[in-house]
Amino acid sequence: MKNFKSILITFTITVFLSKFGFGQSASGSGTGTADILEAIQVTSDQTLHFGDIMSHYFYPDVVRINLSGTNRISILGWAILLPSNDGQPGVFTATGAPNRNFTITLPGDYEVYLSRDLGGGVDMRLENFVSDPNVLGTFDGTGSREFRIGAQLVVGANQLEGWYSGTYDVTLEYF
Q1: How distant, in Å, are the alpha carbons of 2, 100, 109, 137, 142 from that of 133?
Q2: What total of structural domains would you count in the chain?
Q3: pLDDT (0 to 100) of residue 23
Q4: Domain membership of residue 111 as a residue range
Q5: Which of 25, 55, 76, 95 is most buried, with most CB under 10 Å away?
């Protein structure tokens, strides 16, 4: 019985000591923060325009608008690029949080087509979109940034004359 009381007292002291202050423990506190950024806004300032083009009667061609807007070229050399309208890159202004970085997502190939406004004819595909800045950009100290968009237009052989138009999406996201 004496051993039983001794074991019981030892057990009670061990449980008491481990529960009330002699075990290892520590506590601390942390701080939670958040930085809510201004939503990015994108405004189109200038239309991406491929200029005046005469298609070849037999061969298709690809017309590229470079980002500088001063160098419109026929990739294959079949289309005639008339000097009356040289075309121009698309120009956008984006606003967001000052000095923050963003990514630019451009349309992929086979996503954007120009259709003849009067109907009829074959749609023309836009492909190989490029931007300046290329994929990554930074807003300036006022939260503004201009960027340019160029692309290639696939002109069909004997493309029906007329005004062709379509829309494309450009997405900017903070990173």
Answers
A1: 87, 14, 20, 6, 18
A2: 1
A3: 60
A4: 39-174
A5: 55
